[in-house]
Design goal:
By secondary structure, the chain is an alpha+beta fold. It is 38% helix and 17% strand. A hairpin with a 4-residue loop joins strand 11 and strand 12 (358-359). Helix 6 runs antiparallel to helix 7 (261-278), helix 8 (307-329) runs antiparallel to helix 9 and helix 10 runs antiparallel to helix 11. The structure holds alpha-L-rhamnopyranose (RAM).
Length: 491
């Protein structure tokens, strides 16, 4: 175990546990009858269930089915999918035999759910089974209650759901989703950390995650896209062009929020290293190009999206944060400034179409992703960016974001260009659309015009409490600071 991992492990939080009792119909349950119990909100933890013989003599085992659902709609999608492109084992469904009755059983897995359905699949004619208790031991490393923020009931509702989403993803690390993949991903971490600074302020958890990434960097110093933290800390080599670069703003923002200069000092070389490593992905004209070395440039869940071009802007964006880090530590960053200049010029030449006032990707593709990232990269100033984002809204062919992750960056770009009203409107329509579904937490993917859109080939594997969707709580608390913000430009 290297020193960075040791540091991270020393910061492992003790989870706060609390018992919640589900409401529902207790008592006798007939064969094949399904009972749904309601925890009253979304929780993450372990289920403890007590059963007994309501009448008769127990002469055979009971055989029960349990389904754990994050939303009521999830009950429509709980069959084991055979066509998914990720493991179907994530589904939250158990079949349990009980040989001794009465019994109190703790189910084997950790679940993310609000609703628990129980069905007696087989039982003897000599007795009727009864459900005495459905309890849930919830776990989180988000401590304290946060007062919802917002000017209207709708805003406060969106805020409550955002906070619940973040809270339930805060476990031993910032998980992407407590149902699936329960992994620490860099892109998710950044957005969780930002929202955490404005709410729970668990700085140690962010620090732990930064050290987990640092401790699992490859031999060249490349930060992986994600880290497994259990049963042991491990990161398979997964090159993610954008996620590795996002280590830079994530470190900077941690320092700004916590004032922890030692961590900044210790991890700054690794942050700057991400820029150095990314340089080979640009041709002699300083334009990004596709190659195996680039790895996965995630940007958003959209197959047809020209993500590589977005990478040009992500690089410039990250480089500006690297300058901030170097300046704070009194280190030379003239080469990074030069990089910014060269990559910005090349980005404009390659992608900016003056006649449309838009950035245009491969094969004439116009997307929110490309334009948003170039606005965030600050290649132009806020006023001009505002006109670009306006032109984007009027562009019928533009590819919309699919995930709350990409929507976050769109809203961020709107705020930073001074379009606060439009930014707020976007939050109210997009996240408000999810809230209207009666959810307690926000989803991994939400496409209002195709509610069943998902990247895994099966709705059974979708995560309804997904970290990267928690940022309305960040925006509501910081919007006055981000109005027409040039912070990214001032490096
Ligand atoms: C998904 C994860 C995570 C995201 C990556 C790119 O599988 O759930 O949220 O960061 O993909």
């Amino acid at each position: 175990m290297n020193n960075f991992i040791k540091k991270a492990e020393a910061l492992k939080p003790i989870l706060q546990k609390r018992v919640v009792t589900a409401s529902g119909r207790y008592g006798a349950i007939q064969k094949n009858q399904r009972e749904i119990y309601d925890l009253g909100n979304h929780f993450v933890g372990h289920a403890v269930i007590s059963v007994y013989a309501d009448s008769g003599v127990v002469d055979a085992p009971a055989f029960l089915e349990f389904i754990f659902a994050e939303t009521m709609e999830d009950f429509d999608f709980n069959d084991l999918p055979d066509n998914s492109n990720i493991s179907a084992a994530w589904i939250q469904k158990e079949y349990v035999h009980l040989d001794k009755i009465p019994a109190t059983i703790k189910l084997p897995r950790r679940y993310a759910c609000r609703y628990i359905s129980i069905r007696a699949l087989a039982s003897s004619a000599s007795y009727v089974l009864g459900i005495r208790n459905v309890k849930f031991i919830e776990e989180t490393s988000a401590f304290g209650d946060i007062i919802p923020c917002g000017n209207t009931e709708q805003e406060r509702e969106i805020d409550r759901i955002s906070i619940r989403t973040l809270r339930n993803c805060m476990q031993s690390v910032f998980e992407d989703g407590p149902k699936r993949d329960r992994r620490l991903w860099l892109g998710d971490l950044r957005l969780q950390a930002l929202t955490n600074y404005a709410t729970f302020k668990n700085f140690e958890l962010v620090k732990r995650c930064l050290y987990l990434f640092a401790g699992t960097a490859d031999k060249d110093g490349r930060i992986n896209g994600y880290v497994f933290h259990t049963p042991k800390v491990y990161a398979p080599t997964v090159r993610m062009f954008d996620y590795s670069l996002l280590f830079i703003p994530t470190l900077w923002e941690y320092y700004k929020a916590s004032n922890d200069i030692e961590t900044l000092q210790e991890l700054a070389p690794l942050a700057v290293r991400q820029l150095e490593l990314a340089q080979v992905n640009f041709d002699k004209n300083h334009r990004i190009f596709e190659s195996p070395n680039l790895g996965w440039c995630f940007i958003d869940w959209q197959e047809s999206l020209d993500k590589t071009s977005c990478g040009q802007a992500v690089y410039i964006y990250a480089a500006k944060y690297a300058c901030k880090i170097c300046r704070a530590l009194g280190r030379d960053f003239s080469w990074i400034e030069r990089e910014i200049e060269l990559k910005s010029k090349a980005g404009l030449t390659a992608f900016y179409d003056e006649s449309k006032n838009l950035f245009v990707g491969k094969n004439g593709q116009i997307s929110y992703a490309l334009n948003v990232w170039f606005c965030l990269a600050g290649v132009f100033g806020p006023k001009k960016n505002q006109t670009i984002l306006k032109a984007l809204q009027n562009e019928k062919k533009a590819i919309f974001p699919t995930t709350p992750y990409m929507y976050h960056y769109y809203v961020d770009a709107l705020y930073r260009s001074g379009a606060a009203t439009e930014a707020k409107r976007t939050i109210l329509t997009y996240w408000g659309g999810m809230a209207k579904c009666g959810t307690d937490t926000f989803f991994e993917v939400y496409n209002p015009s195709n509610p069943q859109e998902n990247p895994y080939g099966s709705m059974a594997l979708i995560s309804r409490c997904h970290a990267w969707s928690c940022t309305p709580a960040y925006f509501f608390r910081t919007e006055s600071d981000t109005k027409s913000d040039e912070s990214c430009l001032e490096y």
